[in-house]
Amino acid sequence: MKIQSVNKTDYRKKLNQFTIAFVIAFALLALIFGSLFIALFAAPIVDPETQSNFRYNLGGVILALVTMAMIINSIKKHEFLKDIYYVWQLKQVHNSIYRKLAKIKAAQAEGDENTHVILAFYYQTLKQVYELDDNTLTINNVNLEIDKLKQKLGDETYEQHVHQFEKNMLNAY
């Protein structure tokens, strides 16, 4: 996976627009599907205390969620969503690395060269995501880890390692 440059202002603006559009579309679809299910399948309510359309409304919400997932899956590579999709992919890779971080650090202590590449990529992209998401609470820890790794590898080697990462490197851990 290659590191891409992301304009923070554009990213935040597009993410906010996408989030608002998603919430509005999801709510509308849930209402439409729920109403449609009630109109098609529900019996007239005689006793409101014993009868409910909850299951039809729940079905509408589930169908709306499935519909939104299919829509997002079909448009995720659209130019407008490029930065959002890139950050989402980074967060998935971060999760994969984080789950194996103890094993990766143990292998690093043994001198495994691939761990330097993985950790350089992990910390550099984690810093990028934290800056994009305004996560100022833990970015100092990431900067400390980057500095430690740069001290160990040297600045030039660190920069080379950042760009050598491949997802399949994680399979060894």
What does this protein structure show overall?
It is a single chain. The protein has 173 residues and is an all-alpha fold. It folds into two domains: 8-76, no CATH class; 84-170, no CATH class. 73% of the residues lie in helices and 0% in strands. The chain has helices spanning 8-41, 54-75, 82-99, 101-109, 113-132, 139-153, 155-162. The longest helix has 34 residues, at 8-41. The protein is elongated.
Contiguous runs where pLDDT drops below 50 for at least 5 residues: none
Q: What order do the helices and strands follow?
A: HHHHHHH
Q: What's the helical proportion of residues?
A: over 70%
Q: What is the molecular shape?
A: elongated
Q: Quick one: how many beta strands?
A: 0
Provide mean pLDDT, rounded: 93
Number of helices: 7
Secondary structure category: mainly alpha
Cα radius of gyration in angstroms: 23 Å
Count of distinct structural domains: 2
- Euclidean distance between termini CA atoms: 18 Å
The major beta sheet can be summarized as:
none
Strand composition percent:
under 5%
